[in-house]
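Hey, can you fold this one?
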Amino acid sequence: MRKHGLLALGCTGLGVLLFIFIYYSENGSLASARLLWKKYLMFIALTNAIGFSIFQVDRLFNHIIDWKNNFLLRFMGGLLTNILLVVLFINVTGNYFFGLTAEEILKLTIVFTLVVFIYEIFYGLFYSYYHYAVTQAEQLKSDRWQLELQFESLKNQISPHYLFNCLNTVSSLLFKDTQVAEEFIRRMADTFRYVLSHQKQKLVSLREELEFVKAYYFLLQVRYEYHLRLDINIPQNILDSQVPPMTLQLLVENAVKHNKISKETPLFVYISAQDNTHILISNSKTTAAQPITSFRVGLENIHKRYRFFTKEKVIVKDDDKFLVQLPVLKKEKIKFAKA
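Sure. Predicted structure:
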C-alpha cells in the first residue's frame, strides 16, 4: 500500500508540473488555479493512469525477464513496451476522454517518452544494485555458514582428545618400534598440515583428500593394531574432481567411532566410485563400541556442506553395510547454492 501511495503522489505531482509546463508554453502565463481546476484534474488522472500502467508492465517484465541475467533485454523490453503504451494511451484517451488538442497530445507524448526513458534507466540501476546487494549478502551468509561447518570439522580433527590419542600411541611405539614411531609422527604431521592448510578452502581435489585419508588411515592402523582395513578403488579420471575438505576423513572416523574394532571383529572400510558420478564410502558393521551422539551431527555437517555446491543429495544407507554416497563435484559443473 505504501508503494502505491508513493506512486500516486509522484504521478499527481508530475501531472501538475506537466499541466503547468504545457499551459505556460502555450499562453505565456498562468491563469488562476480556480479557473483551471478541471484541466488540473484531467492531467492528474492521465498521469496516474499512465504511471500505474507502467508500474504493472514493469512488474510483469520482472517476472518474465531477469535483470541480473538479461539486463539489456530487460531494459529495452521495458523501455519500448512502456513508450508504446504511453503513445497509444495518450493518443487514444487524450482526444476522446480528456479533450486535449493535437498540440497538447504531441507535447505530452514527447515529455512522457523522455520521462519513461529516464524512469527505466533509474529503475534498471536500482534493480541492478538491489540484486548485487542481495547477492553479496547471500554470499557472505553462505561463506560464514561454510566456515562454521568447516570449523566444526576442524575442531574434531585437532581436538585435545585426538592429539592425546596420537601422542599416547607415539609414546608406546617408542619402546616397541622406533621406525613405526617415526613413520607415525610423519603421518600425524601430514594430517595436521593438511587440516591447517585447507581450513579456509571450500573445496579440495579428491586426490588431495585421498592422500590425507591414507595418512589418517595409517594412524588408525597403528592404534588399532592393524585390525582396520581400508580399500581405495577410485578411477584416475575423477581424481581431479572436488570434495569439501575432511569429508572422506570424517566418514572414516565415524566408521571407527561407531564400531568395535578387535582381532575378532575387524573393520573394513571401502572407498570406491559408481559410474564416475558418485563416490561411495562404505564400512562393515560390528558391535558398537559405545553410543556416539556426534555420529548424526557429522553426517548432517556433510549434507549441509554439499548443499552449497550441488542439487544432488548425499545418500545414506544403513543395511548390512553402512554406505554414504557422495556426488562427484566436477569443477565445470559446480554451482554455489544459497544459504
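The chain has a mean pLDDT of 78. Let me know if you want another pass with a different chain boundary.
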